[in-house]
Design a protein that fits this description.
alpha+beta, two-stranded antiparallel sheet, elongated, Ig-like_fold, DUF1573, Secreted protein containing DUF1573
């Protein structure tokens, strides 16, 4: 009995984790490289386009950059 309960619990946890890992967001490009930019060139921008192909609303909580001089604002 204990073994069956343990196995069922394990399967349910794996199922829940696989559901959480699936995202419905699809980006046109997941990353963008501006290359080498001189400060005298002025500001540069790039717009990421994404669409939600999932069944539930998605929320972007964090955007990460590889350079401290980059500010990633998020616009709806």
């Amino acid at each position: 009995m204990f073994r069956k309960t343990y196995q069922l619990t394990f399967v349910l946890i794996l199922n829940a984790l696989s559901c959480l890992a699936q995202s419905g967001l699809v980006f046109d490009r997941p990353a963008w490289d501006f290359g080498t930019i001189r400060e005298t060139d002025g500001p540069v921008t790039h717009r990421f386009v994404c669409r939600n192909e999932g069944e539930h609303p998605e929320v972007i909580l964090q955007v990460t950059t590889t350079c401290g001089c980059t500010t990633p604002p998020i616009y709806a």
